[in-house]
Amino acid sequence: MEQFLTFLQEGFFHILDLQGYDHILFSFAICAIYANKDWKQILWIITSFTIAHSITLALSVFNIITINGNLVEFLIALTIFFTCIENLFIPQLHSYRVLLSGFFGLVHGMGFSRLLKELFMGMQFNAFTTLLPFNIGLEFGQIIIISFILLVIYCLIKLAYLKPKTITYIISVPVLFQSAIWMWHRFPWQHQILSSSFSLFLT
Fold this sequence. Notes:
By secondary structure, this protein is an all-alpha fold. The protein has one domain (2-197). It is 78% helix and 0% strand. The chain has eight helices and no strands. The protein has helices at 2-15, 22-31, 39-61, 69-89, 97-119, 127-158, 164-186, 190-202. The longest helix has 32 residues, at 127-158. It is globular and about 50 Å long. Mean pLDDT is 89; it is low at 193-203.
């Protein structure tokens, strides 16, 4: 039971950790086009994301699939970037957000597994005493994040009298720029490209 609670706590506090806030910004990007009245759509989106990241989290933890960690971090930033682009410029894709969030969940699940392995290096993982509570902790944290985001959007609409489209821009534009910065810094071959370019310059 102690191990269950430990992993539950780790999952919960990881997703709420402001030092690694990429998932929080992803949640903001996902919710930017919605309001409280759209809670059913948001529920489907969260469910799709949860199922998908649970699959790749399990597969990665048990080494059934292995993907370069730097590439995963880059792809996580790319999912945030694409979601913002969709919010701002591709409204035709909004109706497919449940499918897209599922696809993006596959990527984020690999990121979660990387953290789990780093935190408990060398430990034998068990589906019920380690993986399950960690995943449950993630979901509890995600519910808090989504609830907070919807509260912010509600206040912006009801108290600041902002239009939903304006809110979409207020959220999506800064998140877009931050995700672009992450993509640049996390680009897997960036250092190789810079080294090659510098060598060519010297010669």
